[in-house]
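From: lab user (bench 3)
To: helpdesk
Subject: output format question, protein + flavin-adenine dinucleotide

Hello, I'm new to running complex predictions and I'm not sure whether the block I got back is the full result or only part of it. Here's what I submitted:
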Amino acid sequence: MSSHHTSRMLILGSGPAGLSAAIYGARAGLSPIIIEGMQPGGQLTITTDVENYPGFRSAIQGPWLMEQMRAQAAHAGARLMAGHIERVDLSRRPFRLFGDDGEIYEGDTLVIATGAQARWLGIPSESALQGRGVSACATCDGFFYRGKKVVVIGGGNTAVEEALYLTNHSPDVTLIHRRDSLRAEKILQERLFAHPRVKVLWNTAVDRFVADSTSNTLIGIDTVDTLTGMRGHLATDGAFVAIGHTPATTLFQDMLPLDEGYLVVEKGTTRTAVPGVFAAGDVTDKIYRQAITAAGMGCMAALDAERFLAMAEFSRTAS
Ligand code: FAD
Ligand code: NAP
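Helpdesk reply: Thanks, we reran it on our side. This is the complete output you should expect:
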C-alpha cells in the first residue's frame, strides 16, 4: 500500500547538493524529506580517492565522504527516504512527486538535485576499467597519472580543458577526436595546439580499451581511423572519456526551461521558472561539476527555499 509523505521542503537527490540542502533545511526547522534515488550519496560513491574536497589533508574515500554527509543530514533532522521518482506535478503547490513504488511525496518547496551523469563510449572493457585507468573526470583523477602517459577522448570544451589540465601532471597527453576539427572554443583550441606536451590524433575513434591481464589495469587502446577504417593501437596509462554529460532532467522536460538539457536558474540564485522550485548541483551546472560547487549550490537552494517560505507566510498573514 502506498503512503503519503509531506514536508515543507522536498529534496530530490542525495549527492553533495541534495545532502547540503538537507543539512541547511533541517537546521532551519523545515524537516526536509530527501528522496535518495538509485544512487544514495550520488556520483562520489562510485569513486575512490577524493583529494580536493576541503577539510581533509589526506585523500578520503568518496563513499565514506557521502556516508558522513548522509549521517550529518539525518542527525540535523532530515528524513532520508529510499525511493526513485518517476513523475512530478509542479502545476500547483504543494508540489507532488510520485515514486515508482507508489509512494507520494508532497512539499511546499522542492529542491531538484538529481545530478548529471558522464556519457561513456559504451565500448568493450570500459566499465570494467573505470577506476583502473579509465575515468571521466580529469580534475578528480588526473593526479594519479603523475609522470604517466594519458589520452583524452572528445573534441568539446570539456575534452580540451581536461587535456590542458592533465598537462599539470602528465608529460604526454594525446587528445583523440573522431573528426578533423574541434568543437571547443577557439581560445581553448589555440592553447591546446600551442602546448608542447599535447598531441592531437584526428579522425580517430577508440574501439576497445586494453587491460593488462594480471593487474586488470589499462595499458592501451585500440583505435580505428574514421576515414580509412585502418586499425591502430596506442599504449597509455590513463584514458579520460570527455564526450559530454547528460543531466538528469527527463522528469522536468515539459515543465521547466532547460539549456542543453540543464535546468535553468535565475542568475546568482537557485530559483527555477516555477516559484518554490529550486535547482542545485550538476543538474544545473554545465561548467564546474564538482562536489564542492554542488554542495555550495545545495546550501544556496535551502536558503532560497527558506526565504521563499518566509515570504509566502508573510504575504498570507499580511492579507
Ligand atoms: P549527484 O552526485 O549526481 O547526485 C544525484 C542524486 O540524484 C543521486 O543521489 C541520485 O540517486 C539522485 N536522483 C537522480 N534521479 C533521481 C530520481 N528520478 N529520483 C530520485 N533520485 C534521483 N568531484 C570532486 O569535487 N572531486 C572528485 O574527486 C570527484 N571525483 C569524481 C569521480 C567520479 C568517478 C565521478 C563520476 C564524479 C566525480 N566528481 C568529483 C564530480 C562529483 O561527483 C559531482 O560534481 C557531484 O557528485 C555532483 O553532485 P550532485 O549532488 O549535483 O549530483
Ligand atoms: P560537447 O560540447 O557536447 O562535446 C562533446 C564532444 O565529444 C564532441 O566533440 C563530440 O564529437 C564528442 N563525442 C560525443 N560522442 C562521442 C562518441 N560516442 N565518440 C567519440 N566522440 C564523441 O560536450 P562538453 O565538451 O562536455 O561540453 C558540454 C557543454 O558544456 C558545452 O556547451 C560546452 O561549451 C560547455 N562547457 C563549457 C566550458 C567552459 O565554458 N569553459 C567547459 C566545459 C564545458 P563531435 O564534435 O564530432 O560531435
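A quick orientation on your result: Residues 21 and 302 are 5 Å apart (CA to CA). Let us know if anything else is unclear.
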